[in-house]
Amino acid sequence: GDSVTQMEGPVTLSEEAFLTINCTYTATGYPSLFWYVQYPGEGLQLLLKATKADDKGSNKGFEATYRKETTSFHLEKGSVQVSDSAVYFCALSLPLNRDDKIIFGKGTRLHILP
Amino acid sequence: EPEVTQTPSHQVTQMGQEVILRCVPISNHLYFYWYRQILGQKVEFLVSFYNNEISEKSEIFDDQFSVERPDGSNFTLKIRSTKLEDSAMYFCASSHPGEAFFGQGTRLTVV
Description:
Oligomer: heterodimer
Strand content of chain B: over 45%
Largest interface: A-B, 20 and 24 residues
Distance between the termini of chain A: 41 Å
Radius of gyration of chain A: 14 Å
Structural class of chain B: mainly beta
Number of strands of chain A: 12
């Protein structure tokens, strides 16, 4: 079935380090891809998205490129900040479904040290 | 900015009791969802709701669960007889369709 696999956490980095969180997907159709972020004590927020191959989603210095050939959507940031500490979820939805049900990965906890 | 609101933020209930989790979706949205996140695990789809009926539900959404949109603004999730394993964060979401907006979640603790 449709699924999302992302790297296990926690990931601990020093401030200003380069971040990569890997994400790959399996889907029967042509999905839209998302990264959601959950800050401590808060709900889920959409961080960025891409709806077709080679699209690059970007927001708050984070980027992810929709790679159809490798079925991947890795999240990157060039220089992380303490305020980026959160749980990051890779996700997909299939627009051919009757609804926009989202399938999430297990989440990766990111901890940035000052 | 419009947002999805959920109440309560935290609910503690005894095993076997009924609970109702409440959500107010964004006003012009047409699709409504409930998701569940057991502590430390992934966010799981429970149910989607469109045009006053369930459009899809997961295997988690058994006969103990029901959803309702009683008055055109609220969207509720009822758990008839709670079990310990129902303890989780429950997220409501809505979409126009398109981008789904999530609420802050209700943390349900079954004791």
